[in-house]
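INTERNAL AUDIT FORM
Audit reference: QA-55
Scope: verify that the stored structure record matches its stored sequence.
Auditor: D.O.
Record contents follow.
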Amino acid sequence: MPGRPRDPDLEKRLLVAAWSLLQSRGYDALKLTEVAVQAHAHRTDVYRRWSSKAQLVVDVLAEHLPPVSDPDAGTLRADLAAMVEDFAASWSSSWVDGLMGLVADLHHDPDAELAFRRMAEGRGEPLRNAIIRATRRGEIGALPDLSLVGDLIEGPLMHRRMLGRQPLTPEYLDTITDLAYRWLTGARVAP
């Protein structure tokens, strides 16, 4: 006796519902049972796919975060500016307020932590590509530690938004872009 047919749109509805709740209520208030209700699904539908809230939210972020562009604008400075804008769009989202709760939960959920790291690495791919292109064009010398470059760009955005609770203004983004560019190219940073 065959079971009922699988709903091909169920996972998509669950991810959309979780994204909506994450944005409106934040990570800490997100409940898997509410995701099911909003998606017109059963609680077991959620738990069959994700064994923890952290795992669900990592998949939601991978699906819904604004993409990081890989512009190849012809100069490292232009590529960095485009990527800083994209990173800032993510860090300016309302869901960021609950990110500390997610990070704390990742510590206790190795599967979610691995998925989060993979997502972060994927989002860093355009930056790696820009550095490689700039090296090939002769704009910069030897390849720097690419993870450090990402930390130097996203770290200030994250800190300003999450800990400083300040907006990411265009002037601030230009400063981050200029500092990263100067550090990578060895240009002198004005005092």
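Auditor finding: record pair retrieved intact. The domain at 10-62 is CATH 1.10.10.60 (Arc Repressor Mutant, subunit A).
Action required: none
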